[in-house]
Amino acid sequence: MLEGIMIGLTTALNPMNLVFVVCGCLVGTFIGMLPGLGPMSAIALMIPIAASLDPSAGIILMAAVYYGAIFGGSTSSILINAPGVASTVATSFDGYPMAKQGKAGKALAIAAYSSFSGGVIGAILLLIAAPSLARVSLSFHSTDYFALMVLGLTAVAAFSGQGNVLKAMMMTVLGLMLSTVGTDQTQGIQRFTLGMIDLLDGISFLLLVMATFALSEALMAILRPKAMTDEERRKEQEAHSNLGSMKVSKEEVKELVPVVGRSSILGFLVGVLPGAGATIGSFLAYGTEQRLAGPTKGKLFGKGSIRGLSAPETANNAAATGSFVPLLTLGIPGSGTTAIMLGALIGYGIQPGPRLYIDQPDVFWSVIVSMWIGNIILLILNLPLIPYIAKILAIPARFLLPLILFFSLIGVYFVSFNTFDIQLMIIFAVAAVTLRLLDFPLAPMILGFILGGMMEENLRRALLINNDSWSFLWERGLTLTILTIAVLTLVVPMLMPLYQKWRKNADRAGEGG
Amino acid sequence: MFFTKRRIGAMLLLAFCIAYAMLAQRIPLLPFQADSAFHARTMPEILSILGIGLCLAMIVLPSPAEYVELKGKSWFTALAFLVLMSIYGLTIRPFGFVLASTMLLGVGYWLLGERKIWLLAVTSIPVAVAFWALMSIGLGVFIEPMPWFLRG
After folding, report:
1. Cα A438-A342-A152 angle, rounded to 5 deg
2. pTM here?
3. A280, A335 in Cβ contact below 8 A?
4. What residue intervals traverse the membrane (chain B) (predicted)?
5. Which residues of chain A fall below pLDDT 50?
6. H or E, element range at A182
């Protein structure tokens, strides 16, 4: 492990890579602060640049953008109550009330320290967990991988929230369907190309991500009523005109240390679960701390509690780190963001999975080490720069939105130099906006799209090894166990409301009798 | 009301899944592949069944009472942006990168309410030129900057 850390340090501390970390943190913070744009859009916008770099530098840049975007999202949550991403929604519960009380500076400082601690503790846990899991997963067969991918996809649907399971499952299937467009990898047969030469290579991953996230988010912002935007602008100007002191007292630090410890571990563990991610991590940490705070301090939650601010901030960064565990060790992304990173890795010709640890230790370790460095740089850069960064929120949307559209279109065009891609992107963006207006989640679709090709390949291989028999699904113990977990993950949350209803009725009947 | 957000989405996706299932049947197979357990149609067929089943479940099962709100949204502006982006795709080659990008940005700012000509020019031309320079000179990715009538 020490040798690995040294390899990682040598790569991550390379001056050029340090420049990428600094730029990534700044760009990520900037994009993450813009309401509506989150880490997925930020990373998607970076892919064309990362594609021109070597794999380690590219992944380091994207990881830095990821952290920066999460921190940026917290800033807009605290200052204007407009979370850039779902994972910072819980931050606004107490961050925004603090800003309204004139303690915006302190709230931003606590958010920065908590993010830093969550990220660093998460990276230490990743350092321990990733190599161990990678070693274990070396014994996995293609049948197990197929089962793991099914688990990853069902978990995404299961964690999408009550009432959204069917929608998320459908979006996953839609992503899998889109992944089948193009020439079949093994037999060379054209599928769903509609006779178009431009579709022979399938739908570009970058095109789909840019269209469904960056482009559709900008179009959604254009669609939103103007009155809302003016109101937001007024709030923004009020918020960043007076940040107040950024000092955190000794008593407050003492109060926050256990919160940070608990939330880091909780966030990391939730992040490791495929599909759970930073959003669930942050809400779980918030809820846990509220229960642990006791009746007096618990009442302060939602009214400007520093514990309520620190817990989700710590957990979402730790979860972001945790989501790298399945990506680096199994090649299965744990979240939409890591799905995009997986797509980028595949673009480099790197197949993440247990072999990554052995075949390309420089990429494996430099990602882990760059997380520490990224978190340190994020803290050093953002704390003194917060008052200036906050001013970014004052850039009028009428300038920002066309720029986002321009960078999205150009990002795709500069990779393929094919104008067909621009038109296809517009079609996908229209479909994405329609699905967003109907409240259908898009992240499961990206996950399905990324895993589709690998899933089909593993299924084909499993059937080939088993002489065309589907019996591998129940004959191999590990495969069966993973598939059973997948089914339970999906079925249990669907049955829980029915069970609760049944218990309520039973209790009522008991009281009546 | 029957037409909730979920049901409308499910109906649209059902139409897509049916079209997908029909196209899946047109995937050509070699004679010896027809009887094998896995071929080029296997995955699309499984996905078609799953997709259609899920869409029907969303339509039939009770749905949350959430309805589409069409009022109060800037539909015209969004549509204008779609047309603008499509025109950008068509003009980027003949008009060259700088002119086409300047037009996209300038018209985009204008559509969102900026009316000062000098501000439109200052915020679009330098961005297009700087981005072209960054890509062509900085990263070595060349793209024709000039319109067809000015090329040598």
Report:
1. 60
2. 0.79
3. no
4. 42-61, 73-89, 95-112, 119-143
5. none
6. strand A182-183
In whole angstroms, what is the distance from residue A191 CA to residue A200 CA?
A: 8
Q: Which of B38, B43, B51 sits opposite A170 (nearest CB)?
A: B51
Q: In sequence order, what are the residues at sequence separation of 6 or more whose Cβ sits closer than 8 angstroms to the Cβ of residue A216?
A: A429, A432, A433, A436, A442
3-state helix, strand, coil in chain A (%, to 5): 80, 0, 20
Q: For A69-119, how does the pLDDT look when each residue is reduced to its tens digit (9 = 90+)?
A: 888 888 877 877 766 666 777 888 888 888 878 888 888 889 989 988 998
Question: The complex's ipTM?
Answer: 0.95
Number of other CB atoms surrounding residue A355 within 10 Å: 14
Collect all residues of chain A within an 8 Å Cβ-Cβ radius of residue B3: none
Taking only the tens place, the pLDDT of each residue in A42-56 is 887 788 788 778 888
Neighbours of A125 (CB within 10 A): 21
Instruction: Taking each helix axis as running N to C, give the angle between helix A250-272 and helix A306-322, from 0 to 180 degrees, rounded to the nearest 10.
Output: 30
Residue whose C-alpha is closest to residue A43's, from A17, A65, A75, A15: A65
Place of tokens 């900085």: B138
Q: Alpha-carbon distance B84 to B68, whole Å? A: 26
